[in-house]
Specification:
This protein is α/β, with parallel strands linked by helices and 136 residues long. 35% of the residues lie in helices and 18% in strands. The chain has a single domain (8-135), classed as Rossmann fold (3-Layer(aba) Sandwich). Helix 3 (84-93) links the parallel strand 5 (74-77) and strand 6 (98-101). The longest helix is centred in the first third of the chain and has 11 residues, at 31-41. It is globular and about 35 Å long.
Length: 136
């Protein structure tokens, strides 16, 4: 009997422990904050990456991915598309296995570059919605 191929997003969300959120706000009114708070309550370690804040969700913020002193499983990007390529370049340099661009964050060139570097790429999808759909 042939087994059905595993859903790569489910697989990623089950394996990942640490999510660096680029563009995470410390304002509860911002989508990045709500999405990250949800992921945090579901057992993920959230690392804020935003040079404008000191911290968010009880975690110290870092100015860039390069400044994060621990292993990152997913880079979740809440930045405008024109800023994505720089984030992807840092993620490639750090050998982070997955890049997740939130809804309306679309940068085909950056996605292509990440895939070419062997990274798993999700684009224009909300990590909260994908998690809820799979794990309730």
């Amino acid at each position: 009997m042939a087994s059905t191929p595993a859903d790569p997003i489910t697989d990623l969300l089950q394996r990942a422990k640490t999510i660096a959120v680029v563009g995470l706000s410390n304002s509860p009114l911002r989508p990045s904050h709500g999405v990250s708070a949800y992921m945090q309550t579901h057992g993920y370690r959230i690392i804020p990456v935003n040079p404008e804040i000191k911290g968010s969700l009880g975690e110290k913020a870092y100015a860039s991915l390069r400044d994060v002193p621990e292993k990152i499983d997913i880079v979740n990007i809440f930045r405008r598309p024109e800023f994505v390529e720089e984030v992807v370049d840092q993620a490639i340099h750090l050998k982070i296995p997955a890049v997740w661009m939130q809804e309306e964050v679309i940068n085909q060139a950056a996605a292509g570059k990440a895939r070419k570097a062997g990274m798993f790429v999700v684009m224009d999808r909300c990590i909260l919605k994908e998690h809820k759909a799979r794990f309730g």
